[in-house]
UniProtKB/TrEMBL annotation:
This is Disease resistance N-terminal domain-containing protein. It comes from Dipteronia sinensis. CDD domains: RX-CC_like (cd14798). The keyword Nucleotide-binding applies. The lineage of its organism: Eukaryota, Viridiplantae, Streptophyta, Embryophyta, Tracheophyta. Residues 5-97 form the Disease resistance N-terminal domain. GO terms for molecular function: nucleotide binding.
């Protein structure tokens, strides 16, 4: 009887553990999808930043919203910088271990270590990106509450157009110098 109970409990624990591992693996392999979602969120918010920037002077809640957005933006920048740095470090380590035949043999034994590091790196980054996306989702919901005007493109003031066409009759002066130079060139 005790064996049956222990067996059932172990099966449930194994099932829970398997589900947890599946969630973690899905998280690790979904990093690129999370990065795309992050990009999409930032692009959606970017469309209203001009209006929000103008309204922050008069509305304190818009200023708070922009501060939250700024904090999340810094977090996202830090995570993506860390991601790129770690990827470069892994590439450098692989290149260093692949230089000689002896090191190639060693790298065969160390490759599981590199794979483990890569998985840990992906997991940490994926968790942080997921948290940032959740924060951005909240910020996007707040964005809808403020009814910002969407601006797709900001028109830059155009300068005065100029051409290189010069009316020679309106140019005055330097005739003597021009004549002197022409004489020197001819001689």
């Amino acid at each position: 009887m005790a064996d049956a109970i222990v067996s059932v409990v172990l099966e449930q624990l194994a099932s829970i553990l398997r589900q947890q591992i599946e969630q973690e693996v899905t998280l690790v392999w979904g990093v690129s999808k999370q990065v795309k979602r992050l990009t999409s969120n930032f692009q959606a918010i970017q469309a209203v930043l001009v209006d929000a920037d103008q309204r922050q002077v008069k509305e304190a809640n818009v200023r708070v919203w922009l501060d939250k957005l700024k904090d999340v933006s810094y977090d996202a920048e830090n995570v993506l910088d860390e991601w790129n740095t770690s990827k470069l470090k892994l590439q450098i380590q692989r290149a260093e271990h692949a230089v000689t035949l002896k090191k190639k043999v060693c790298s065969f034994f160390l490759s599981p270590c590199f794979s483990f590091r890569k998985v840990v790196l992906h997991h940490d980054i994926a968790l942080r990106i997921k948290e940032i996306n959740e924060s951005l989702d909240h910020i996007a919901v707040c964005k809808e509450m403020y009814n910002f005007n969407t601006i797709t493109s900001v028109e830059q003031p155009r300068g005065v157009e100029s051409t290189s066409f010069v009316d020679e009759y309106t140019i005055c002066g330097r005739d003597k110098e021009k004549k002197c130079i022409n004489e020197q060139v001819v001689v």
